[in-house]
Amino acid sequence: MKTHFLYNILLNIGLILMIFSVVAAYNSAMYPVLAIAVVIVCVLGYLKYRLLKQVRQMTKDKPTGQARARS
Asked: Transmembrane segments in this chain: where (predicted)?
């Protein structure tokens, strides 16, 4: 679970930095850089979605503490 937490933090930092670069590229009229930054934001957003889906599935499949204590 620690790896998922670290991965989530890295994805958040990457998304924030890329959103800043999208804004800076748009303000500077650097459209090739803007296009690349938008693609990277989409990829990072997709990876974050997959991570959240995976963590949600892991927590759903995990047995409760009471069920483990009885076994």
From this structure: 5-23, 29-47
pTM of the entire predicted model: 0.78
Cβ within 8 Å of residue 34, ≥6 positions away:
22, 25, 26
Using CA atoms, how far apart are residues 20 and 37, in angstroms rounded to an integer?
Answer: 9
pLDDT by residue (tens digit) across 25-37?
999 999 999 999 9
Closest by CA position to 34, among listed 20, 46, 15: 20
Contact (CB, 8 A) for 36 and 22: no
Residue 14, H or E segment: helix 2-27
